[in-house]
Amino acid sequence: MLKAKCMTLENFFKLVGENPSYLLLYFALIPLTAFVAGILGNGEGAITPWRELYSVLIYLVCVPGIFALMLGVYSFLFDRYSIYQTDILSQILPVCSMIVTLLIIKRNVAFDAIPGFSKLSGLVSLIAATFLFMWFIDKTHIYAMTYVPFWQVLILFGVLFLIIRYGWRRFIG
């Protein structure tokens, strides 16, 4: 029987550390592409070919950027890592590339005109609210004080998650 070898995040970060050129190239090409698109489509950012390109660029840079940001927040809040242990290539570079790309794109088109951007900002808000809730649970040790079975804590978390999501939609919409 063949056994598939799974790659963990630790293995991935080790691979990236050993071959940083691919990661550097990826996170340099996205803002560069946005810059060139801004020059070529100056004033036409809300028109069909450009806004789809911007949408793809935003997703290509924001998904790893948001992941790196949340991984950093998780490391600092829950694992108690020092800021000196932050990996520049896997935690800082994606966030910097995301910020630079968003600033470049914003100069040529409003984010409201880009398809799917509201979904991405909603995802970030939802993840941030979830992290705040998890941090609150971790700091108060509410699960340890109540002697509630863990599955009931998960159900409570799910219900509160839905309430946060509903409240956020009412606040934004």
The largest β sheet comes out as:
none
Secondary-structure element order, N to C: HHHHHHH
Taking all Cα atoms into account, the compactness measure Rg is: 20 Å
Structural class comes to: mainly alpha
Output mean pLDDT.
Answer: 81
Blueprint of the fold:
Elements: H1 9-18, H2 20-40, H3 48-77, H4 88-106, H5 117-140, H6 142-145, H7 150-172
Keywords for this structure?
173 residues; mainly alpha; 0% strand
General description of the model:
With 173 residues, this protein is an all-alpha fold. The chain is 76% helix and 0% strand. Helix 3 packs antiparallel against helix 4, helix 3 runs parallel beside helix 5 and helix 5 crosses helix 7. The chain starts with 8 loop residues before the first helix and ends with a helix.
Give a short overview.
This protein is mainly alpha-helical and 173 residues long. The chain has seven helices and no strands.
